[in-house]
Design brief:
Layout (H helix, E strand, L loop, with lengths): L1 H15 L3 E6 L4 E6 L1 H136 L4 H70 L4 H11 L21 H25 L11 E4 L2 E4 L6 E4 L2 E4 L5 E3 L4 E9 L3 E7 L4 E11 L6 E2 L4 E5 L9 E8 L2 E3 L1 H7 L5
Length: 442
């Protein structure tokens, strides 16, 4: 059965691949090689496989070459777009930095003006109290003089009556010249005293008029100072309030917390009171107390701003290489959450604390490399990762702008950069919210 099948297969192959002989002739001999149908089939199949493999490989190489060329062009375009975007962001950052410096200068100038106006206000109030005291003394003196004048008039009338009686007596008794001389002297003395009292009263009235004019001018000056102070307060407090609200921080709760923490040093100012007689406050006193309350609020805002991370961790020229949110992981290529912002710069670039706080970690941590953690008020914590050198210790208290580390590439990093995080009650938030919120203030 197998022999028959083999014979049939051989016959079928012989029709397609008839047996061939290849003669090899030399000078002395002639030989031939017989190529059976099976051998020819195997050779044909091998040649076909080689040709097919060559065609497929060539096609794959051509497609890969075309694809890689398109990918390179796309990569070049993406790189050019990224460079343009980085340049635009650098220009915007420089512009914002200049605006921040100008805003800080305006803020400082406003504070200086407020201090000067506050000094003028206190000086004017002191002068006003002195003038009020002087007016009270003059009024008291004037009342005494008026009383003395009335008594002098009464005495003068009595003397006139006595004079009339004396004249009658003189007419009746011409023998009393000594008494007449005495009466004339008394009348002259009384007339001089009356003239002196009238002159003193007139001088007191003129002094009172001058004091009233000076008080009017002082009141006008006080109104001008109050208006300038109120405008300065509005200009100073509004940007700070907007900064906190832009960062999503409830201002009422923040101010109350700072007030409790600074009740002995930076708390509310004592309201002004110009009277100890239990009288109602005047309009100027109400305005002054309102300004003092606004100054207290401004001071609390400044303290709160110093305790929150409203600053950039780097001051040198750097590149903003990655932001907060989901991104393509630079190591694995997968899509992962990025909990902070990356700033790339030269190796050893200074890194600064963004707010007052206490260092809670200063050392190596897996993934972050050399890491610095700082705990701030309001449940806020900042992280500074991948440093090459750490310049603070655990438990150390730092202030905004203190040099805490040097930029490096330790830990899970592809190059020299700073990974900066802000966490609120342990939950990561976008650090740029705080940095952008303070652009027009600091």
């Amino acid at each position: 059965m197998r022999t028959r099948l083999a014979i049939r297969v051989h016959a079928a192959l012989e029709r397609v691949f008839p047996e061939r002989r290849v003669f090899l002739k030399s000078d002395t001999d002639t030989r031939f090689i017989r190529l059976k149908p099976e051998t020819q089939l195997v050779a044909f199949a091998g040649v076909s496989v080689i040709v097919a493999w060559t065609i497929v490989a060539t096609a794959v190489l051509l497609m890969d070459s075309i694809g890689s060329g398109n990918f390179r062009e796309q990569a070049k375009r993406d790189q050019q777009t990224y460079r343009e975007r980085l340049n635009a962001m650098s220009e915007e950052r420089d512009t914002r930095a200049e605006e921040a410096v100008a805003a800080q200068q305006r803020f400082s100038a406003a504070l200086d003006q407020i201090s000067a106006m506050q000094s003028e206000l206190l000086a004017s109030e002191t002068r006003r109290r002195e003038l009020e005291t002087g007016i009270d003394v003059i009024q008291s003196t004037l009342r005494d003089i008026m009383k003395e004048r009335d008594r002098a008039r009464i005495a003068l009338n009595d003397l006139k009556e006595q004079t009339r009686d004396a004249n009658a007596t003189l007419l009746a008794a011409d023998s009393a010249p000594v008494q007449m001389d005495m009466m004339a002297d008394v009348l002259d003395e009384t007339a001089k005293q009356r003239d002196l009292i009238l002159a003193d009263a007139q001088a007191a009235l003129e002094a009172r008029a001058e004091l009233e004019l000076e008080l009017d001018l002082l009141q006008e000056r006080n109104d001008q100072i109050f208006r300038q102070l109120e405008e300065a307060m509005e200009i100073s407090v509004e940007p700070l309030d907007k900064m906190f609200r832009s960062a999503g921080m409830p201002t009422d709760r923040i101010i109350e917390q700072v007030r409790r923490g600074y009740s002995g040093q930076g708390g509310p100012l004592t309201p002004l009171s110009f009277s100890t007689r239990g009288e109602d406050l005047s309009a100027d006193e109400v305005r002054a107390n309102k300004l003092l309350a606004q100054m207290d609020q401004l001071n609390l805002y400044r303290l709160a701003a110093q305790l929150a991370p409203f600053a950039s961790p780097v001051k040198a020229a750097v590149r903003y290489t990655s932001g907060y949110g989901y991104r393509r992981d630079p190591k694995t290529g997968g899509r992962r959450m990025h909990n902070g912002s990356d700033f790339a710069g030269p190796h050893g670039t200074d890194i600064f604390a963004t707010a007052d706080g206490v260092v809670t970690h200063a050392g190596w941590q897996r993934g972050f490399g050399k890491l610095v953690k700082i705990r701030h008020e309001f449940g806020i914590e900042t992280l500074y990762a991948h440093n090459t050198n750490i310049r603070v210790k655990v438990g150390q208290r730092v202030s905004r702008g203190d040099h805490i580390a040097d930029m490096g590439s330790t830990g899970r990093s592809t190059g020299t950069h700073l990974h900066y995080e802000v966490r609120v009650n342990g939950r990561p938030v976008n650090p740029m919210i705080y940095i952008k919120a303070a652009r027009n203030v600091f």
